[in-house]
Specification:
This protein is α+β, with helices and mostly antiparallel strands. The chain is about 25% helix and about 20% strand. Helix 5 crosses helix 6. The relative contact order is 0.09. About 5% of the residues have low confidence.
């Protein structure tokens, strides 16, 4: 824990796990690398974090005071390398085994120090290139795989390890480069046929799994390539993060629909997670496919009602987007790229803010009623599609609204198309997909939308046949009287500049016409309006983005 994590709940859970594991056996021991001083922190913060660690150990009935100094050297570094040459660490075990822990015999405990171990050169660190340099915190966090490997061995020196003993490393808070995981894998690859090896278990945060898996796979394959006498050549699977190529991702069989090629969009997209590199590649492949063969009704619209051929059966259970010039609903899983600027340059007057927690960005409403997302952390932040904020308490009022832009005191419930996005069970869905879902999954055939008129979209009539309905598509229009309902939130004031996410929208006051989009869902009725992010964003470390400045958001 060279760098103290920013998420308090994450640290608390980690120490609870450590307490449970050390209580299981006197042979279980915890090794904690206390935070070190670096330019991006202060001595006050370092002492505060160290005190927090002591409190967690006391609450978990674990011993404290067995400090061990880890010594480093920098054989390949220049004189300007200011990284510390030592680090204070703690060996801890459960207080029930204070007189019986075998770790008290280790050299680390008897001498009070281990090392020195070589630190990695800064130019060899992960994330170093000609344009990017590791921050001060990243420089002290990365020690290098060789250093981590020697550190793991040094902790075991002096221990009386028997043939029947097993060594298991449980990495509760891995650093961002997972160096102990890489060191454990390197040790395993050094002796692939050994019958007695140490085991490594790392508790990695979900958003880091894909990156770590790719790094470990690369480490295995590099070893594989250089040890052909031990491991025979084998075709490796494609990387989970590398962009697919024609060799790794392509179509060998093209489905034909009534003599025309059709791209199997739903079949391919469902094989990969939303927002993944593979999905993006498939969408690009689909565009190229349509450019070469033309965008024709796919296998989803091969029935009588969708194609309008006059033969076949209505068996299609998906929405047919071959009408309306091929317009489709907004793809909420797409990745949007918006202009960013450093947080230090954000000087707009704030009406209120929702502090960022648990990996989420800080949300700010500026005086010009623009919604900003701020990433104040030291790492890039991936913001998935989902709910941004609500409008707090309020009431619905039914009244005639001619033009939505003229209604500034509330949020108007009005849909313009069956492609408009609604929030259903906290997930954004186009209206037509929502109606299809209710029909297919719940058997609700005749559904109304409050203050709106629905009518089936129809294919153009042919000379010898009547017009046929388009599969799960509707014409949507407001009432002739223009009557609808308006949600009028209660006024919200920001105490000390902060508000809760559920009532953040109330800061708009009498300027609700400046909210970029606010829609929510027998009869579909509006519940409470919420604002959703309908794209995936990546906000660089220490940067902010103006959501209101781009309609694509």
């Amino acid at each position: 824990m060279t760098l103290y994590p920013a998420f308090a709940a994450y640290v608390k859970n980690a120490f609870q796990i450590l307490g449970s594991v050390t209580a299981m056996s006197p042979g279980h021991c915890g090794f904690i690398m206390l935070p070190v001083f670096q330019k991006q922190t202060t001595d006050v913060a370092r002492i505060k974090h160290r005190r927090a660690i002591e409190d967690f150990l006391i609450k978990g009935s674990m011993s404290y005071g067995q400090e061990v100094a880890v010594l480093y050297n920098k054989p390949d570094s220049g004189p300007r390398d200011g990284r510390p040459m030592s680090q204070v660490c703690v060996l801890t075990w459960h207080t029930s085994y204070k007189d019986s822990s075998p770790w008290s015999e280790s050299d680390a405990m008897t001498s009070g120090r281990i090392g020195p171990y070589p630190l990695i050169r800064i130019s060899d660190m992960v994330g170093y290139d000609e344009a990017t340099r590791p921050s001060a915190s990243a420089r002290v966090e990365q020690r290098g795989v060789a250093c981590a490997s020697q550190l793991m061995e040094g902790l075991l020196e002096g221990m009386s390890v028997r043939d029947t003993d097993r060594v298991v490393w449980l990495d509760v808070i891995p650093n961002r480069q997972a160096e102990f995981a890489r060191a454990a894998l390197a040790k395993l690859l050094e002796s692939p046929n050994a019958t007695k090896t140490a085991k490594y278990v790392g508790l990695v945060r979900e958003e880091k799994v894909s990156e770590l898996r790719s790094a470990l796979e690369s480490q295995v394959y590099n070893w594989w390539d250089s040890n052909l006498d031990v491991a025979p050549p084998k075709e490796r699977p494609p990387s989970s993060t590398a962009a697919p190529t024609a060799e790794t991702l392509g179509l060998s069989i093209i489905p034909m629909v009534k003599g025309k090629p059709s791209f199997p969009t739903s079949v391919l997209l469902n094989r990969f997670s939303e927002g993944s590199v593979e999905q993006d590649a498939i969408k690009e492949m689909e565009k190229a496919f349509h450019a070469e063969f033309g965008e024709v009704p796919s296998s989803r619209t091969t029935d009588k009602s969708a194609s309008g051929d006059g033969d076949g059966h209505r068996s299609c259970q998906v929405c047919d987007y071959s009408v309306d010039e091929g317009l489709k609903p907004l793809d909420c899983s797409r990745r949007a790229t918006l202009p960013t600027k450093p947080v230090a340059e954000f000087t707009q007057e704030r009406l209120g803010a929702v502090p960022g927690k648990n990996g989420k960005p800080t949300m700010v409403l500026s005086a010009d009623f623009h919604v900003w997302l701020l990433n104040t952390s030291e790492e890039p932040m991936d913001v998935p599609p989902g709910e941004l904020f609500g409008f707090g308490t309020g009431a619905y009022v039914n009244q005639v609204v001619e033009r939505e832009a003229e209604e500034t005191t509330g949020l108007v419930w009005r849909l313009l198309s069956d492609r408009d996005i609604l929030a259903f069970e906290k997930s954004p869905l186009p209206l037509c997909e929502l109606l299809r879902k209710l029909t297919v999954e719940q058997g609700l055939v005749d559904i109304d939308v409050e203050f709106h008129v629905l009518a089936n979209k129809m294919h153009p009539a042919k000379a010898d046949a009547e017009a046929l309905p388009v599969s799960f598509r509707w014409e949507v229009s407001s009432l002739t009287s223009k009557k609808t309902c308006i949600y009028k939130p209660n006024a919200v004031t920001a105490e000390n500049g902060d508000v809760k996410k559920v009532s953040f929208g109330g800061l708009f006051g009498s300027n609700y016409h400046k909210v970029q989009s606010a829609s929510s869902p027998p009869k579909l009725m509006p519940v409470k309006p919420k604002v959703y992010l309908l794209a995936r964003l990546t906000i660089p470390a220490g940067s902010c983005v103006d959501l209101s400045a781009a309609e694509a958001a």
